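Input record (one chain):
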Amino acid sequence: VQLQASGGGLVQPGGSLRLSCAASGFTLSDIAIGWFRQAPGKEREGVLCSYPNGTITYYEDSAKGRFTISRDNANKEVYLQMDSLKPGDTAIYYCASAATWHCPNPREYNYWGRGTQVTVSS
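The corresponding structure, as predicted from the sequence alone:
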């Protein structure tokens, strides 16, 4: 199982960014994919997760109404659309999987990709 996040960068407050997660080594249409982030000096936290059918579970309340996930299962890509970004969203973002169909407790994820840096600053 391999996951690779990309698409990070510098964005101004209030702006938008879309991250991509390329998945390989499993059938993406069978697997839930989560997005996590780790800000400087803080522990990694779960942000949200997508079930195979596209249903989303939010781990982080601040992401509700601003972040959403879309999937292209055929091309094995998962996207994190982030709108109305705030400086507090600055972090390294990771996609991850527990190799299961449901969105588990964030501590149960065991497949991680390399992260991508998102910086929200004016």
